[in-house]
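Q: Got a minute? One more chain.
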Amino acid sequence: MDADELRAVLSLEGLRLLDSLPPYESKADVVRVVADLRKQGHPPTLVAAVLTQSRLRARARDKFGPFADRMLFTQDGLEQATRLSVAAQHAGRFARADLSWVADLGCGIGADAMALAALELEVSAVERDEVTAAIAAYNLAPWSNVRVEHGDATSYPLDGIGGVWLDPARRDDGRRTSDPQDWSPSLDFAFDLARRLPAGIKLGPGMDRDLLPEGMEAQWISVDRDVVELVVWSRDLARDGVGRAALVLGQHGAAELTAAEDSEDEPVGELGEYLLEPDGSVIRARLIGDLARRLGARMLSPDIAYLTADAPAASPFAVAFRVIEQFPLDERTLKRELAARGIGTVEIKKRGVDIDPSQLRKRLAPKGDGSATLILTRVAGRRAALLAERVQ
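A: Always. Here it is, folded:
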């Protein structure tokens, strides 16, 4: 979105038109809506701008719920924005640390600032991009305790600030920038600031662990089994004795596994009746060994993130499968066994083997009314296929 499109949307006519649109559902519906709006005499630029916002609002509901219907977005801003459920976790940590004034440096469209403001913290939200800053100001207008400023995060005065939140921009015109020094602000700036002030730094979950600073807490966060981010916490925002953490959010609420450092794996043992797949946040945080000990499980094979146990383990940190049978990892055998059992719906999971599940599914050509999970992996170092069913 450029400045002209933003001005069009923020006009009284633009906001009224945007709020009057039906929910965005498909491109076919958009063609009809465009034709109707043009017949009503609305300018083409305005029509395009409000329809873009309507589409982004529809996409944003997964992250913002009903709040999305009163917000404005940019494509990059929405991609990088924190989910509100996760932002609430961040804000709670600032509140528990009794930091009353927080600087959100690189606030984007304002997601984390919204959560901070909702806990009645004073927030200075700083954004370098002028259009994005204007959108953040619109989104944060309901909170009088937020001040949005168009400026450079690296030169913003921090006198009196209790803590900072940084979400370095890692996208440019929709493209990811892989070099941390090209982020805005750069990773070096963020970590240097975190050494001087209590800080939370949001990073991608696949961040190179060798770049993480010592003496700070690294927390991987997953939502509904999807690892969405890594946050590095410093000083008063880091917890004593916690160097690694896996926070899992889902229908169960919030659950967290923590440790002072990477945990050692449990020894490899025999395949039990159950296979356990650790949550991605546990894997990223390298806390598989701690999880195994908590669940009374053992490693299935060296350096593979599957556990096995003799009893089902109900845990927010892992998904359990009951193993029906073990086969050699041979396509002809698998095709024959699936056919014999009438299994037509197959979920294929794999770790430690170089196989494309979608291509394998085509070759297996499953048919029938039954369903199962096929787990392709290594058992005690040897390639194997496990026919299993999810434990609900």
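A: The two ends are 45 Å apart (CA to CA).
Q: Perfect, thanks.
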